[in-house]
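Weekly sync notes, structure subgroup
Attendees: PM, AL, DS (notes)

Item 1: joint prediction request from the bench team. They want all two components modeled as one assembly rather than separately. Inputs as received:
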Amino acid sequence: MPVYEVRVQIAGTILALLSVALVLELVRRRRLSEWQSLAWLLAAAMIGGFAAHRRIQFILADFVGIYYPPVLILGAFVFGGLAILLLQSVAITRLDSRCRRLAQEVALLREKLESGGRAHRRDSQRGAAS
Amino acid sequence: MSAHVVALVLAYNEEGSLPGLLCEIAHACPDWEVVVVSDGSIDRTTERARAAGAVVLQLPFNSGVATAEQTGFLYALQAGADVVVRLDGDGQHPPAEARVVVEALERTAADVVIGSRFLDGEGYQSTPLRRGGIRWLSFLLRRLGGVHVTDPTSGLRAFGRSAFSLLALVYPSGYPEPESNLLLARARLRLSEVPVRMRPRDVGQSSLGGWSSLYYPLKVTFALIVEALRRPAAPPSGEGERGR
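Output from the run, pasted for the record:
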């Protein structure tokens, strides 16, 4: 195996391991949910897989009819990135909708609380006067 | 027994125009319950509304017309109201005209009555560019849902219980008037229009300015097409034919 291929394998494996470590650390610190982390762990596994076994990309590129195999990797990551962005947009829309509903509940509860407080103060004043 | 009417006033930083408007409502429509939705106002809108004796629903942050209006519908539903009429806190909707809209709702078999600026062409008519956009939206509503309205962006609308019960559950975001008209019509609720005269706003500026005025028709056009592709919403159970 040529030296440059070994270097690529080492660099790719290190990158994949660093990515996994970063994702796991974020999950451990509760900065990233387990559910959201799966997509990123999958991406890291893909980096590691392609780096360790370069023949996979040649086989897959040949299978889908791509002449220059690295384009397959690039395309897979662009597609994966867009898919993650779409999922994030869906999640943001859901959060936005929940956030608005919460704001509405806060407004309604605040009004109930304040009108209850006003009625209580009125009753207390009447009681003191009589 | 007269109907329980909620006058829903949407206000965002309207401390200048709100006291005058609330005073006008108290004179023109003393039997109405006035509910002000303060949409994350950072001026004295909330205090002014409370001082005028209105019920105030104070959203914790600015959430837009749709969220504010839907908050009012939720309140009206909980308060057992029969009719909700919406007015803008900037003073564009005269309370006397709001009464005309409510009376039309009570007189006819409609579930929603829209106050239209264009039926008799009197009062404030908006800018020519906006009138062109409004005509386009009228055309779209006619083609997509068979809704015949001349003023689909009018905020001066009165809703019967079946209509506001539905909108309390599902309501479009952004600038919701045209989309909600289509949603209501596709839910087989009846819409009608009466001529009203509106005024230019008392103070402040419209939220539709600059880039928003270009984005708005595109967004609404897209939203109307998507709305037409959805399964029609069903009125909430128990609200039946005309729940008032």
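Discussion: Chain A has a mean pLDDT of 87.
Action: AL to compare against the crosslinking data before next sync.
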